[in-house]
Design a protein that fits this description.
Helix content is 38%, strand content 10%. The chain is an alpha+beta fold. Strands 8, 9, 10, 11, 12, 13, 14 and 15 form an eight-stranded mixed sheet that branches.
């Protein structure tokens, strides 16, 4: 029998085993990066200069963007597993990992951010063709070789030097097994149970139903991660960029320490083997650690439920995804708060940190009781967060830096409470064990599809021209100079005329109303005074993508909490000085984005109109809620949806859908 040092994948279950190890690896890396990011300093009072603090802030954003891409890789691996008909794997060993679970040279430990840790990250993400030395403090506990034999039924893990090499073995297995068993036979899983780009803003996400899609997903993981020496935005290159700047700052200040002195491998409970671990025993720290790990475990459980049910309605799936993101955000808030607290009473200099402790099992909850169990657990978490917040508000905590986290904890608590209400309102399975019911959802949609008129835009800078028959309003801040008005009615709209330039009396109310309805930005609004019909909400809510330009909306619009009429043109290049509205900045910025994106989902909606709510998320995308058809410039349907997130930083690789590129792009805009 021939022995090999590479992974042996000769069957579907052996492929499952290899994908499970890949999932653990992505999961591990995400946690390592988040832990290091939580340790980064926030203020000059922590012993850094203004210049150093600016660099640390940049590094935090880079590490966060990489951690999000690791989450994307974990999701892609889950999609690959679902595609071959098996259950996704979200379990992993607790930190630090024991020898034998992974190749000897892949050391998995939680550590604060410093040069050693950064060099370790670079080592883990290095290209297959490159030989590098690991960080000095990440020497393997022992050397060993994992061997796998061909021709055996039991899955057996082989060795690999880099994460990319593991994925090359998996890639080859998909190719070989599709040839042996047939593409449809191997890729027999449900697409509906996967998380795709329309469900999540993770960068590079895709669903998998064919061999080509499977191989493309693996290529995304390899390229985003190790990439190659010339792939500028790979994890390897981004970590190298941080190291270059770090080296320069150390030359200026050899005592520069960018991170707090958080514990190496903190643990919740007294360890059997205390070596290489710090048991968090400080009473307040232990409470925060318990909460952080509970948020983390709950996030994983929600992800498991998303993959567990095939016939779940889209709205319910979207709710669970929102809950998972809300839990992750709250986990990050509490996880960083921990790094301001001592790990033990005996040594106040060693600070605590989140241990990412795992539960014994993450098997799916019964679909008939999932709502009750998830809501019950979320209620308990909210109660714990509320108690900690009240302690801070009542001054029971003297730690000034922990007190500074009070507002963030309060906001995260409120957000989770809102998400808990969404879980309660989510359509669920009947107790009779009947299929998923859409009845509550359908009733909700009918309620939102009732308005026949919409309030006009609010705000100043309004010019009015009226006759006895019609009132015309012009909102200058919304105008994008599409020139429908001045070209179709030059006697009414006299551009470049000093003083009054709109003369409603120079045409009939019917013609004026028709031209007003053609204004894509909604800058022109009208009200009939002669009993004629005012503009009504359209039968179909639309958004058109303009070639190299903005989004043009038609519907009963509420934008950032204000009624904005039925037409608006919103910025998607990220450069407008009048956000969220377009001001033509895309021209000067030479913004490029196709007006003909590929069709994503053209499934017909049961209701096509109703209120359309658009909200700017802070430093992020446009959150759109309501029935909407997104169309290309030619009118072709790109996406029919009941809610989505649209890119407005101009950087998404999945335009018009957000893929979290705003994080790496450092996009900034808040309401």
């Amino acid at each position: 029998m021939e022995l090999t040092s590479s992974y042996v994948i000769e069957s579907r279950l052996q492929l499952y085993n290899a994908l499970a190890e890949a999932a653990e690896t992505e999961h591990n890396l995400m946690c390592l990066y988040l832990y290091a990011m939580f340790s980064l300093k926030r203020e000059e009072s922590e012993g850094v200069s203004a210049l150093e603090l600016e660099a640390i802030a940049r590094w935090r954003k880079v590490i966060l963007s990489i951690a999000l891409e690791e989450m994307n890789h974990l999701t892609l691996v889950a999609n690959l597993m679902t595609a071959i008909g098996v259950t996704p794997h979200f379990m992993r060993p607790n930190f630090p990992s024991l020898p034998g679970l992974y190749p000897a040279n892949i050391v998995i430990e939680l550590a604060k951010f410093d040069m050693n840790t950064l060099e370790h990250f670079i080592f883990l993400e290095r290209p297959r063709s490159m030989e590098l030395k690991d960080g000095e403090s990440f020497e393997p506990q022992q050397q060993y070789t994992r061997m796998a034999q061909k021709g055996r039924l039991m899955p057996s893990a082989g060795d690999y030097k880099t994460v990319g090499a593991l994925y090359e073995s998996i890639r080859g297995a998909f190719d070989n097994l599709c040839s042996r068993f047939g593409e449809k036979e191997l890729l027999c899983g449900s697409k509906a149970q996967q998380i795709g780009p329309l469900d999540s803003p993770l960068p590079g996400l895709s669903t998998i139903t064919t061999k080509a899609e499977a191989l493309a997903a693996i290529d995304v993981i390899i390229t985003q991660g190790e990439g190659a020496a010339d792939v500028e935005d790979s994890h390897f290159q981004r970590f190298l960029g941080i190291k270059k700047e770090y080296d320069q700052l150390l030359k200026q200040n050899p005592n520069f320490e960018p991170a707090r002195t958080v514990a190496r491998n903190p643990v919740m409970r007294k360890p059997i083997n205390p070596e290489h671990r710090v048991w968090v025993t400080h009473e307040q720290s232990a409470r925060y650690l318990d909460l952080a790990n509970s948020l983390y475990g709950m996030m994983l459980r929600v992800l498991v439920q998303i993959y567990a049910v095939e016939e779940r309605p889209k709205s319910a799936k979207a709710t669970l995804l929102s809950v998972s993101y809300g839990l992750m955000h709250a986990m990050a808030v509490v996880g960083e708060t921990l790094t301001y607290l001592p790990a033990t009473d005996e040594n106040q200099d060693v600070l605590a940190g989140m241990s990412f402790a795992m539960v014994r099992a993450l098997t799916p909850l019964d679909r008939f009781t999932e709502k009750e169990i998830l809501s019950e657990r979320l209620t308990q978490i909210i109660q714990m967060m509320t108690g900690l917040r009240e302690d801070l508000e009542q001054g029971k905590t003297q730690n000034s830096r922990v007190l500074a986290c009070k507002n963030q904890i309060a906001k995260a608590t409120e957000a989770l409470a809102g998400l808990n209400h969404e879980i309660a309102a989510m359509p669920g399975f009947a107790k009779s064990r009947a299929p998923y019911t859409n009845a509550p959802e359908a009733e909700l949609v009918r309620e939102t599809a009732t308005p026949s008129t919409v309030p006009p835009p609010s705000g100043a800078d309004v010019e009015i021209s009226e006759t006895d028959q019609i009132e015309l309003k012009f909102y200058a801040k919304k105008c994008i100079h599409s020139r429908h008005c001045v070209t179709e009615l030059p006697n009414v709209f006299k551009a470049n005329t000093p003083g009054k330039w709109i003369f409603a009396e120079n045409t009939t109310p019917e013609i004026l109303a028709a031209v007003a309805r053609e204004c894509p930005s909604g800058a022109i609004q009208y009200r009939r005074k002669d009993g004629g019909a005012n503009e009504k909400t359209p039968d179909v809510n639309l958004m058109r993508t303009r070639e190299n330009g903005p989004y043009a909306f038609l519907g009963a619009l509420e934008i950032d909490g204000k009624g904005e009429g039925m037409r608006a043109t919103l910025c998607r290049c990220g450069q407008s000085g009048n956000k969220p509205f377009c001001d033509g900045s895309h021209n000067a910025a030479k913004f490029t984005a196709t007006g003909e994106p590929p069709t994503m989902d053209d499934t017909t909606l049961s209701v096509r109109n109703g209120k359309l709510t658009i909200e700017r998320l802070d430093d992020g995308p446009l959150k759109v809620s309501g029935n909407l058809e997104i169309c290309a410039g030619t009118g072709r349907v790109v996406l029919r949806t009941e809610g989505t997130r649209l890119c407005r930083c101009g950087q998404s690789k999945n335009k018009p859908i957000c893929d979290n590129s705003h994080v790496a792009a450092n996009f900034r805009d808040s309401r």
